[in-house]
Design goal:
It is a single chain. Among the domains are: 107 residues, Carboxypeptidase-like, regulatory domain (Immunoglobulin-like, Sandwich); 106 residues, no CATH class; 27 residues, no CATH class. It is built from nine helices and 57 strands. It is 7% helix and 46% strand. The protein has a 22-stranded antiparallel beta barrel. Strands 23-22-26-27-32-34-33 form a seven-stranded mixed β-sheet. A five-stranded mixed β-sheet has the order 3-2-5-6-9, with no helix packed on it. The relative contact order is 0.10.
Length: 1079
């Protein structure tokens, strides 16, 4: 078999056979290497290799190569082989001095050799013949090209972490420097839309800290936050990453922290912001109040020179910030006045502590570390709740503790085995609670200008106020262990390993209550929030306190093997195989082959390509409300209530659920006008239209018009007992017995959805989300300092998880007549496709400046209404995980017939698709139909155009300028319909307008520039002070945070906001001063 035949044979196997072969190969390699325990972690270290030659290019064998650096006293030597080749592995990222010597040649020394994280650096050396052993020292200029790796990504260097302007001093904000990373500032901070990597959900990204997991297995994304001055550097691998990186399909953020050195070094800093430095980006508005202090102390040194080292840091953050909030258009003034007491500044209090110990004993490098954070944020709202008034805000608190250890051991001399073992314990409790519980349950107030608008939702807006959830507490605990072994055999570098992670989540789920009120402002002021008009009170929660308990467990195992095969001096093949298994979900066929190549066409040009499968990790938060997994047993009930019977109802919503009643005419007026029900067939409607007084004359005593009626006063008002009145009301509108009941607050009510568990099932077709990725790129070094790249990416993103109603009666779409109790199936219903072209450039620091940047063009489409996975409390309060699709049906449609109605002839789908009289699309019978495809459109996770550039200039007098500039297309959004539709007939009305495509519209573009000006004052040789001033959003751009999605009436109603106009803005220009002392 040829050199590469093993790969093609392996990729042609079925998943089951592939898994068996993989286990066999893994065990054989394990036994062959001896009882050294599994696998190698190159994630936290690097390799330097090269060839030593003489002036004529002939190999110099036996030359001594020595690499020494200050980081943890690193000092290693090796000798070149017969081909003049040398290799030093397990090199911590840092700055080194490389010395090459041989008898008969002059010694060459290279200072300031920077070796970045997780890289194989090729550094060739030519020696000059000399009879005198003299040393020539020059500055190292390593090549900018990566010649042995097919993966794509960027390393954020220590200089960028220290010298770039960082809003909030969050090092992960520098991910905006990485080509292909979308920055959606309008998205909630930790949501899937916030920082997608190459079109993947942001929380599908894996996070490592010193080779230890820092991944939140409940909700996705990063676990603990780290002090910026703790981070040495980090690497973002966007795709094509090797098999050693797993449990993530959306890229890997690989971080290393600082370590001590033989000399004591430290720093102290303070940063201050207040609104005196700021400007408002909203015309006519004053600058929002802001006060922020950020204190930081860090230092490290040696406990035993060259043997034991320490590093520690501490940071405290104190911030008070008035949100950049504008009340939604047409919000009643009395509500704005009521909300003033709740419109207090958001407070942020954070503490971050870090300690790290390193010991170097012969061939072992031991590390122990502790990271502790404590965060309390009070009175905050995510940007997704732009229409929510201050009383809806929440308090958030979380604490994290990480205890970790690792041991990297080398066995052998010139080409040693490199063994790494690591373990950690993490404890991460969180709390979410309403900031203003005294404001009562959440109410969405649909404000109507009158009783004849003919709409479902308020024509004067829908402000939201009050607390949506009760308090929720969850405690995540992790026990993690892993090991790896690496060895270079001639042209092969073999690595294999095992990762284990136990996750336990224990806590209490929240309960939710949300009232959708439909009323005029005058009625609200006269009758109050309960009796003002028609309302829908949705309640979710456990029937008992025990039912709200959450107890989730998962054991994750990952096995992997990879080979970096150097076929020739300029061609390297990276091949690998990985198997991932989560016990909670019992999917055993998640085997992912990966292969790629890096080809140095010329010494200055590298072509690279890769293919691979990348499985995501299962977020336990997705099943936190499914009892079968240990989640809470949540029940849901949604009654529609009429506190003044049919009086005071300005909306046509009841018509859509089987109670067709006039909003303004009495029975007599209906009869004289000849008016009929405008929605016959919906929910069992006939052509009969009921007047506002239709239920006021059921008993011996007529009930006064517009009177408040409830279970406590109905007998006094009507002369009928409460039960007798219900029976009379059922008969009055030709409904079966027990249609009406006395519901919330004792009002007359009926159920729009039968009480049910939510959600209740994991579909049998459940599968792990994965990405099939292809890349092709070329990188060209133009000079010693400049490099340019062009890359193409294609991704098929499969098995995206979501929820739909799996017991939907297909025929229900004809008359919107579904009465079945929902069975909500959680499964792999959705998919997407991503294509991108990226041009990038970089110039390293020389001639006093460095600059880099990229342009990205993206085309991504998927079929999910909302790809932000809802693992928050109740996971589905907004319609389920990523929202029900517009059409939940998935399967082969049966033959159905619409008998027609006045003005509509009806039809059948026996031979062709048609539109039913209610406007619903009915696909052809006998042909597989996936209703989610109605929602195909541009993805929430990608922006069409992005241009980013960043740079740093060092001027005389120790003055430094650095900046980040970004301009990108606006975010996609979907138009809401004037009259929502129930496409599949399940009673769940979708707000989008099917006359336009999902995400057809784009907000105004985003433009931002952050800038930093710094002046350094050298005091002594090892003491300097740096003063700085930073501007964020330097141009004070009015960047959109939210837009008006609602379709407009024709003509526009008084005060109606125009569709597509910006309704909320991101913060304007903000300034920060800082002082940094280094010693």
């Amino acid at each position: 078999m040829g050199h590469s035949g093993w790969w093609f044979v392996m990729s042609s196997l079925s998943p089951a056979r592939l898994r068996r072969r993989f286990f066999s190969a893994f065990i054989c390699l394990f036994l062959g290497f001896g009882a050294l325990t599994p696998t190698a972690h190159a994630q936290t270290t690097s390799t330097i290799e090269g060839t030593v030659t003489d002036r004529q290019g002939l190999a110099v064998a036996g030359a001594e190569v020595r690499l020494a650096g200050d980081t943890v006293g690193f000092d290693k030597s090796t000798v070149t082989d017969g081909n003049g080749h040398y290799q030093l592995g397990a090199v911590p990222a840092g700055t080194y001095r490389l010395t090459v010597s041989h008898s008969g040649f002059g010694t060459r020394a290279f200072k300031s050799l920077e070796i970045t994280l997780n890289r194989t650096l090729r550094f060739d050396v030519a020696l000059e013949v000399s009879s005198v052993q003299q040393e020539v020292e020059v500055s190292a200029m390593p090549p900018l090209l990566e010649t042995t790796s097919s993966s794509e990504g960027v390393t954020i260097t220590p200089q960028q972490i220290v010298d770039m302007p960082l809003n909030g001093r969050n090092y992960l904000d520098l991910m905006q420097l990485v080509p292909g990373v979308a920055i959606n500032r309008q998205a909630d901070l930790n949501s899937d839309n916030a920082t997608p990597v190459l079109g993947e959900r942001a929380n599908n990204t894996g996070f490592l800290i010193d080779g230890l997991s820092n991944q939140n297995e409940l909700n996705g994304g990063a676990g603990a936050q780290f002090n910026q001055d703790t981070i040495a550097e980090f690497q973002v691998i966007t795709t094509g990453y090797k098999a050693e990186f797993g449990h993530a399909s959306g890229g890997v953020v690989n971080v290393i922290t600082k370590s001590g050195s033989n000399d004591i070094h430290g720093l102290a800093s303070a940063y201050h912001r207040n609104n005196a430095f700021d400007s408002s980006d909203i015309s006519g508005n004053s600058v929002p109040y802001l006060l922020r202090w950020d204190y930081d102390l860090a230092g490290g040194g040696a406990m035993v020179r060259d043997k034991a080292f320490w590093f520690a840091s501490a940071e405290g953050i104190h911030e008070n910030r008035q949100l950049n909030f504008v009340p939604p258009a047409n919000t009643p003034q009395f509500l704005i006045n009521n909300e003033e007491t709740y419109n207090e500044p958001t407070t942020d209090r954070e503490v971050r502590l870090f300690t790290k110990l390193d010991q170097v004993f012969h061939n072992h490098h031991l590390t122990e570390q502790m990271n502790y954070t404590n965060l309390h944020v009070n009175s905050t709202n995510p940007l997704s709740l732009s229409n929510s008034l201050p009383s809806t805000r929440t308090n958030l608190g979380d604490r994290s503790l990480l205890l970790g250890f690792s041991d990297t051991a080398t066995f052998g001399s010139s080409s040693p085995f490199i063994l790494n073992i690591h373990g950690q314990y993490r404890d991460e409790p969180t709390l979410a609670s309403p900031a203003h519980p005294q404001a009562g349950p959440n109410t969405i107030f649909n404000v109507f200008s009158g009783f004849t608008t003919g709409g479902i939702f308020g024509d004067l807006g829908s402000p939201s106020y009050g607390a949506t959830f009760t308090s929720s507490t969850l405690d995540q605990k992790y026990g993690i262990f892993g090991a790896s072994l690496a060895k270079t055999f001639h042209r092969h570098t073999i690595k294999f390993g095992w990762d284990f992670e136990h996750t336990n989540v224990d806590g209490v789920e929240a309960s939710a209550q949300q009232d959708q009120l439909f009323a005029t402002q005058a009625d609200y002021l006269q009758f109050g929030p309960i009796d003002a008009g028609f309302f829908l009170l949705a309640t979710q929660g456990g029937l008992t306190p025990q039912a709200n308990h959450v107890k989730l467990n998962n054991n994750y195992n990952g096995l992997w093997i990879q080979d970096d095969w150097k076929i020739t001096h300029n061609l390297t093949i990276n091949g690998g195989l990985r198997w991932d298994y989560d016990s909670a979900f019992d999917k055993k066929d998640n085997v992912s082959p990966r292969v790629g190549f890096a080809w140095s066409v010329t010494p200055k040009t590298v072509v690279r390509s890769s293919f691979g499968l990348f499985y995501d990790h299962f977020r336990l938060g997705l099943v936190r409300d499914i009892p079968g997994f240990g989640g809470a047993d949540i029940r849901e009930i949604q009654p529609l209530s009429f506190p003044r019977l049919f009086y005071g109802v300005p909306t046509i919503a009841p018509d859509l659920f089987g109670v067709c009643q006039s909003t303004s005419m009495t029975d007599a007026q209906v009869a004289s006008s000849g008016a009929t029900c405008p929605f016959p067939g919906f929910g069992g409607n006939t052509s009969t239209l009921y007047g506002v007084d239709h239920l006021n004359n059921l008993g011996p005593t007529p009930i006064p018009a517009n009177a408040v009626v409830n279970i406590d006063n109905v007998q006094q008002l009507s002369g009928l007992s409460p039960n007798a009145f219900l029976s009379a009301a059922d008969a009055a509108i030709n409904k079966p017995g027990s249609f009406w009941f006395w519901g919330p607050f004792g009002t007359l009510s009926f159920l729009v959805i039968q009480p049910s568990n939510f959600p209740v099932t994991v579909d049998p077709s459940f599968a792990t989300p994965y990405t099939r990725s292809y890349t092709l790129g070329v990188q060209r070094q133009l000079s010693n300092d400049w490099v340019v790249s062009a890359d193409y990416y294609h991704k098929d993103i499969q098995n995206l998880l979501g929820v739909r109603q799996t017991n939907l009666d297909f025929a229900a779409r004809i008359k919107n007549s579904s009465t079945a109790v929902f069975v909500n199936g959680f499964g792999p219903w959705y998919s997407g496709k991503y294509d991108a072209g990226i041009l990038s450039f970089e110039k390293r620091m020389s001639h006093r400046f460095t600059v880099g940047g990229s342009y990205t063009y993206v085309s991504e489409h998927d079929d999910g209404l909302n790809f932000n996975l809802g693992t928050g409390s109740l996971g589905s309060s907004n319609g389920g995980f990523n929202g029900f699709p517009t059409d939940s049906f998935r399967g082969i449609p049966p033959v159905v017939t619409d008998p027609g109605s006045p003005g509509c002839s009806g039809g059948t789908n026996a031979t062709a698709a048609f539109f039913a009289c209610n406007g619903n699309y009915v696909p052809r019978a006998g042909v597989f139909y996936d209703g989610a495809k109605l929602d195909s459109g541009p993805s929430d996770l990608a922006l069409r155009h992005t241009f980013e550039t960043h740079g740093l200039v060092e001027l005389p007098w120790k003055i430094q300028f650095s900046s980040l500039f970004r301009v990108q297309s606006g975010f996609h959004y979907t138009q809401n319909a004037l009259v929502p539709i129930d496409q599949d007939g399940n009673g769940n009305f979708d707000g989008r307008d099917l006359k336009t495509a999902r995400n057809q519209f784009t907000s105004p573009h985003f433009l931002n520039m952050d800038m930093r000006i710094a002046k350094t004052f050298p005091i002594r040789e090892r003491l300097k002070i740096q003063a700085m001033f930073e501007f964020f959003n330097l141009f004070n751009s009015a960047n959109p945070a939210a837009v008006n999605f609602n379709q407009n009436h024709t003509p526009l109603l008084p005060g109606e906001q125009v569709f597509g106009t910006v309704s909320q803005f991101l913060p304007g220009r903000e300034g920060q001063v800082g002082l940094r002392i280094e010693f």
